[in-house]
């Protein structure tokens, strides 16, 4: 029995909805809660990553001895410090190849570049985790809500076919409860779409800074490799 116009509320409409419409609402509610959890979690992670990136970039440019900077990082490594993790991967490969005799400077820099690309890809993957889910919620939720709405309206018309005279009090509750599914679908989709676009832009910005840092690190390491030969030529 549908709620009458006098006692029609959102909760009464939800409780009076058909089983399938309730299932649709439950799926959308779960998707909304999961997306809000990801929104908060990703927002905190990206904010922390951006702060740590600025801090390490400042230390990197102020520190003339990269070996000392590498040793300091070993004592206070942070999983969220993406730029520091990239630096450690690149410098570790540099130290490994530089210790080997007979390795040309170009081969050392090539090895560092490959190591940096792998490290950057790993950090990009870590930062992008959860974004596909937000994109899926944003694109699919309205259609799931629309399915619940169509099903609810169809049931309402089937019920009206069994009534001699259709009035507003008999039509309104069924249509209203069906439209709630669309409203919940939009409620789940809109924040997910906004968050996905915002996070994707922030991840792209961080990724650009990762590659710029990789080029800066390679330049400093290349100068370090050329320093002994330059001194020998001057002598």
Automatic annotation (TrEMBL):
The keyword DNA damage does not apply. Belongs to the ExbB/TolQ family. The keyword Transmembrane applies. The Tol-Pal system is composed of five core proteins: the inner membrane proteins TolA, TolQ and TolR, the periplasmic protein TolB and the outer membrane protein Pal. They form a network linking the inner and outer membranes and the peptidoglycan layer. One of its GO terms (cellular component) is plasma membrane. NCBIfam families: tolQ (TIGR02796). Its main location: membrane. It comes from the Bacteria. It is a multi-pass membrane protein. InterPro entries: ExbB/TolQ_transport, MotA_ExbB_proton_chnl, Tol-Pal_TolQ. It is found in: Cell inner membrane; Cell membrane. Keywords: Cell cycle, Cell division, Cell inner membrane, Cell membrane, Membrane, Transmembrane, Transmembrane helix. Residues 80-210 form the MotA/TolQ/ExbB proton channel domain. It holds the Pfam family MotA_ExbB. The chain crosses the membrane at residues 20-40, 131-154, 174-196. GO terms for biological process: bacteriocin transport; cell division; protein import. Part of the Tol-Pal system, which plays a role in outer membrane invagination during cell division and is important for maintaining outer membrane integrity. This is Tol-Pal system protein TolQ.
């Amino acid at each position: 029995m549908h709620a009458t116009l006098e006692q029609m509320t959102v909760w009464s409409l939800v409780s009076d909805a058909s089983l399938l419409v309730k299932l649709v609402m439950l799926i959308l509610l779960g998707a909304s809660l999961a997306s809000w959890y990801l929104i908060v979690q990703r927002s905190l992670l990206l904010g922390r990553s951006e702060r740590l990136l600025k801090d390490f970039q400042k230390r990197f440019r102020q520190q003339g001895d990269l070996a000392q900077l590498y040793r300091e990082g070993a004592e206070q490594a942070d999983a969220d410090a993406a730029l520091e993790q990239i630096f450690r991967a690149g410098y570790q490969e540099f130290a490994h190849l530089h210790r080997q005799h007979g390795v040309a400077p170009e081969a050392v820099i090539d090895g560092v570049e490959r190591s940096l690309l792998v490290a950057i890809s790993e950090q990009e993957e870590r930062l992008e985790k959860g974004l596909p889910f937000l994109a899926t919620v944003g694109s699919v939720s309205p259609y799931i809500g629309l399915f619940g709405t169509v099903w609810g309206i169809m049931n309402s018309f089937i019920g009206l076919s069994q009534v001699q005279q259709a009035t507003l009090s008999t039509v309104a509750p069924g249509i209203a409860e069906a439209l709630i599914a669309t409203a919940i679908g939009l409620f789940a989709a809109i924040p997910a779409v906004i968050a996905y676009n915002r996070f994707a832009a922030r991840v792209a910005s961080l990724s650009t800074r990762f590659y710029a840092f990789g080029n800066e690190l390679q330049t400093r390491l290349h100068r370090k490799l050329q320093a002994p030969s330059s001194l020998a030529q001057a002598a």
